[in-house]
Amino acid sequence: MSFNIKSVATMTIQFEDYIYFNSREENRMKETLPVLHNIALQYALKNVQVPSYRLYSFVPSYINDFKTMKNPFYIYPALPATIDHRGASGISVRSASPETSIMKIGWQTDDYRSFSEQTRVNLLQFSDIKVLDPGNTFITFVTSSLPFDQLARCIPSIIRIGKFNSKASIAVKETEFYPVRATDDIKRMACDWIVNPIDLPSGLKIGRDYVASLLRMNPNDLLRDVTFTRPVPAIRLKNAGNITIPICYHFQGVNAS
Question: pTM of this prediction?
């Protein structure tokens, strides 16, 4: 099934509060990795008909949630970036280390000496957490079957994200793109962004059709340093560092067009 891409947008996300989400647990440390998962971003953008913050339920329902997507767009995972307004393109995509802080939730106990009880509700436990500081800027890309002016109206300027329901501002800019032909002449194609393996075209298997490094986090692992060893549909973004990304058009098997 093809996704007729009519527009691509570069999205910048700037934090106005401390943002915390539990990517994974390192003993008593709740680790917040410098990656915004694209599934979390769809909830934050209010593109599904369910609350983005669930207080009393810990059972994920992503497949059912994404069957009710409001607008036909796909968003990739977001990475920290520096914004260069002096360049001709107006933006450059470069890796940057986000500012982080360590906070303590609750009080110090010695319960690390015993097994923890199973968590039944989606609440913060007593422990240390790592958070992303205000002022950090993340960047990602949005593809859509809508023209850019309609796509821009679908994306709010302010979102709430993370377990603190923290505030972040959103800005989108139209990005020129052109398709990378999926032919047998292209034996290897490097992807310049982090992707969600669930959203890749069906039938692709790691080790056979592509090689990649796994980024362990919730709700599912992401892929980085991806190199495809077979032709896959892809686009190249002209005024965003000329990066190449595979065409993804669905979440958890739900078509976005």
Answer: 0.80
